[in-house]
Amino acid sequence: MKKDITNIHRLLDGDAAGEKEAIIRQIQDDPVLRKEFDDLSAAVELLEQEGRMQPPLAFTASVMRKLPSPAESLAGRLKRFLFGSRVLRWNMAAALAIVLLTVVTTILMMKQLTHLDPNSVSPAFPSGEQAAMVRLTFVAPDARNVAVAGNFNKWRTDSHVMTRENGTWTITLPLKPGVYTYMFIVDNKQWVTDPHAETYRDDGFGYQNAVLKVAI
Amino acid sequence: MKRPGMIGTMIAAAAFAALAVTAPAAGAESAAQVSEGIALAVGRSSLTTDEKQVLIGRVEAASRAGVPVDDAEIIVTRGLERGVGAAMLGRFLETSAQVARQGLPVRPVLDRIEQGLSKGVPPERIDAAGKRLADGLVKAKPLVDGLLQNGLPPGPGGAKDAALESVARAGEHALSASTMQGLGEKVRAQGQSLDQFERAVRTLSFLAGNGMPADAAEQVVRAGIERGLTERDYGRLERTVSDMVRQGRSMDEIVRAADRQAREDRIPGDGRGSGHQDRGSGGSRDAGGRGGRGR
User: Does residue A122 form part of some domain?
Assistant: First the structure.
């Protein structure tokens, strides 16, 4: 009986080219098979009249949710969480908003950076320019005090007093990139050119200022 | 699909509000023309009332011309401390103001005056040196503008002011405008820009300032331009000359050494330890050495 019903399916599916006549005769001779054939034919006709149905968008997901979940290890779930592909729904307003937030965040971060503590490791001036820490040294064992004056401090003689370390006077200056001229002042009266400067520039009064070029 | 749109609109509104908060405030007030420090220093000085009024007037005029108030304050307070008269202080300010009014860089003139006062240079010499530099800047302008108009690339920002200053300083060493014009054309022909011209002129001044004849100095610098010397190379060249001058070598020797060094493709190190030359952000640069007992 099972084989006979299979023959009906083959006939309806168009898979029984060589046996078509024999199967039709068999169906006509057997009332049970004939009823089965009529029912199936009616069903085929009904489906053909309905046309192709469109499943809802979430059909696959809803079917998959109803399927029994396979036993999955913790590592597998983690891997799927981390590396499983996702579909992100977006629109232009959301995208523009994200771009705007990124811009605002960047501006805020840059403003924060320009207000770094000037005593921090990499000092910055209020203008946002980074400073180089420049250490000047001057050997004058007999001097009672040594200061440095230059265009970086508008030639003030008392604002940058150097510190003595075993006869060597030193000072560390935070300087923005640029070209600076300076001289040492020994014992508040003697202006001395740094003998080990990179180069020199005349000061317009017959003396030589040391030149210091700072680049970052 | 409505939900993300609403959220997006809300985020956008928040972002615009944040942007408005972070925008810089406009319409900041301009600096006062006479600082409290100037008013106090002038008020306490022994100047007569008329002199005080004239001096304050000069400060205001300089400020209007574009001289920074803090520089005017340094000139006035430092000058009064050193006993410089009101008329001379007024001349310092007027020289600076004239430079500023012509759109020329005023910083070199201010620097020279402030420096002269600090070093105790007689006021008349400060006045003369300031005016000499101011005149040099005025004469430098058509030369630099002409080079730019003839196609010399302008280089980085600030290069023009630096070039004006260097050309003005070169004029103080009796280096002619035609010499500098020629150097500028050479720089342009070599495909270099204004900042490289400025560096070449600075070295030219340095060489002339150390006693090298103008034609020899020009020859050295022309060789340097041809070789495309960098800032560092020019610095080393100057260093070599400076050392040789200090050692009392003859000018012929110095000219030959400088010329040879300028013609080398890459100037070798001068053998000095690096302990005096370290620099960098967050690091340090050592400079300095054994002190002489100055002037």
Answer: no
B276 touches chain A (CB under 8 A): yes
For residue B15, name the pLDDT band (cuts at 50, 70, 90). very low
Q: Say if residue B92 is in the same domain as residue B156.
A: no
B206 touches chain A (CB under 8 A): yes
Residue B66 · residue B101 · CB < 8 Å: yes
pLDDT digits (tens, 9 = 90+) for B45-91: 999 999 999 999 999 999 999 999 999 999 999 999 999 999 999 99
Which pTM does this prediction carry?
Answer: 0.65
Number of domains into which chain A is organized:
3
Beta-sheet pairing, A178-186 with A168-175: unpaired
Interchain CB contact of B81 with A (< 8 Å):
no
Mark which residues 92-131 of B lie under 8 Å from A by CB. 111-112, 114-119, 121, 125-126, 129
Say which residue the tokens 């730019």 belong to: B148
B239 has a chain A CB within 8 A of its CB: yes
Do residues B13 and B126 share a domain?
A: yes
Average per-residue pLDDT for chain A: 84
Kindly report the backbone phi and psi dihedral angles of residue A146, in degrees, each rounded to the nearest multiple of 5, phi listed first.
-135, 135
Contact state of B295 with A139 under an 8 Å Cβ cutoff: no
The residues with which A165 forms a beta bridge, in sequence order, are A168
**Does residue A121 surpass a pLDDT of 70?**
no
Residue B295 lies in a domain: no
- Does one domain contain both B21 and B82? yes
Q: What was the ipTM of the complex prediction?
A: 0.77
Can you tell me whether residue A128 is helix, strand or coil? coil
Contact (CB<8Å) B11/A132? no
Q: Is residue B202 part of a domain?
A: yes
* Both tokens assigned to A97: 């908003």
Q: B90 and B167: one domain?
A: no
Q: Is the pLDDT of residue A2 over 50?
A: yes
Query: Residue A152 sits in which domain range?
Result: 132-214
